[in-house]
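Bit of a strange request maybe. I'm writing a small parser for structure token strings and I need a real example to test against, not something I typed by hand. Could someone generate the tokens for this chain?
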Amino acid sequence: MKTIITVSFFMLLLAPVSVFAGKPGDAAPAISLADVHGDTVTLESLKGKVVLLNFWAPWCRSCKEELPDLDGLHKKYSSSGFTVLSVCMERSASAVSGHLQKRPVSFPVLVDKDGKVSEAYFFSGLPASFLIGKDGIIRYRHMGSGKELLKIYEQEITDLLNK
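Reply from user aminoacidic:
Good idea to test on real output. This should exercise your parser:
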């Protein structure tokens, strides 16, 4: 009986994790958020493109430092069917806009005011990025930032664009 209770307890602890997406092979959870200009952007509208979905926050130093690198990737590969979609974990669109005036980017920056989109992707720590294939399936998941990660992104992006 003790074994059954122990096994049941652990199964109960693990069960909620399975309802979250965010793993390679999962369909990317839907996104419909306003960007910093107030326009609604959906992930569904980008189906057929390779998408680097990046979660960040203005208070995260490494997040802010990687934005220019992500912008470089966006500019380099956008004509080939690639885009960066950025989700800022901040309640105030004006705070995000203020930050972007100092570090402008050419890709859409969405504001996850209530955190529901971030929760759906089930990650801890920032920055967090998900490479989504043309079919809407998460192909790669990365936590953190750095120049070495940029090289990995480039390889994965080109591989996904060639599929």
